[in-house]
Give the backbone structure.
Amino acid sequence: MSNPNRSLTVKLWFFVAGSFAFGFALVPLYDVLCSITGLGNQKSLTRAVAADRDAIDDKRVITIDFMANLPTVGNWEFHPVVQSIQVHPGRLYEADFFAHNLTGHDVTAQAVPDIVPSKVAAWFHKTECFCFSPQFFKTDEQRVMPVRFFVDPQLPGYIDHLTLAYTFYDVPKRTASTG
């Protein structure tokens, strides 16, 4: 191998190693960012809601509709247990979604949330959610999965209705092998 090619190869290997190290460094950096700002840290959000009972706005009512979507037809039964609830900003609530594995084999699935209108996402805080991690289901397993959340009292006053929707996907790379 010629000298210029060897030099380029070494530089590329350093780039690959640096990228790999940077990927691992992002996890603690994210944790530090969350601890400083309080963003993305579900435990901090739960403590903040519990500690700040004065922030609950009992005079205001917001309607939240729940929806469930399946991109693959016939493999799952997935739906909210209740279609809609009314909440007071600042108070912690829980809503349940039901999932039933009809794929005929063990499988891992992931729920992807969506909030409509999208501008509301900054004021809608999930403190616990089945969407935070992939969910493993045995063949024909069914379960109720909770999402705990609160609506920030700072939500603009003209917004009184929002929709929380989940799309439930099979995660093929994490499907359990049978045999």
Residues 174-179 have pLDDT under 50 and may be disordered. The longest helix spans residues 3-37. The chain is about 25% helix and 35% strand.
